[in-house]
């Protein structure tokens, strides 16, 4: 089951940008990929490294620890199967 987080519109990153937020004590990275905001747990599924400062190339986010590359849209490792980010649905609340 995918969890949904609520974010105020002024906290959403601009296209091509990202931001770090905390929801219920959980560190979450918001990435705006071509106008769509994706939310992922700030923990690499490989070994738990922070993904907040990973290199972002289009929709591909590279973990700074060991270099695995994740497709932010699908959430999964590029060119392999089985290892995926924890993605969260985003709903905007307020004005
Ligand atoms: S912790 Fe991210 S690739 Fe190893």
From TrEMBL:
One of its GO terms (molecular function) is metal ion binding. The keyword Cytoplasm does not apply. Pfam families: Rieske. PROSITE patterns: RIESKE. Gene3D superfamilies: Rieske [2Fe-2S] iron-sulphur domain. InterPro entries: Rieske_2Fe-2S (IPR017941), Rieske_2Fe-2S_sf (IPR036922). It comes from the Bacteria. Residues 4-95 form the Rieske domain. Its cofactor is [2Fe-2S] cluster. SUPFAM superfamilies: ISP domain (SSF50022). The keyword Transcription does not apply. Keywords: 2Fe-2S, Iron, Iron-sulfur, Metal-binding. Belongs to the bacterial ring-hydroxylating dioxygenase ferredoxin component family. This is Rieske (2Fe-2S) domain-containing protein. It comes from Caballeronia glebae.
């Amino acid at each position: 089951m995918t969890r949904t987080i609520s974010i105020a519109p002024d906290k959403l990153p601009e296209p091509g940008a990202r931001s770090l937020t905390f929801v219920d004590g959980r560190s979450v990275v918001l990435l705006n990929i071509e106008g769509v905001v994706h939310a992922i747990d700030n923990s690499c599924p490989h070994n738990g490294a922070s993904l907040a400062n990973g290199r972002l190339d289009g929709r591909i986010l590279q973990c700074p620890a060991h270099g695995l590359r994740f497709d932010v849209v699908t959430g999964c490792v590029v060119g392999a199967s089985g290892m995926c980010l924890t993605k969260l649905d985003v709903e905007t609340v307020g004005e």
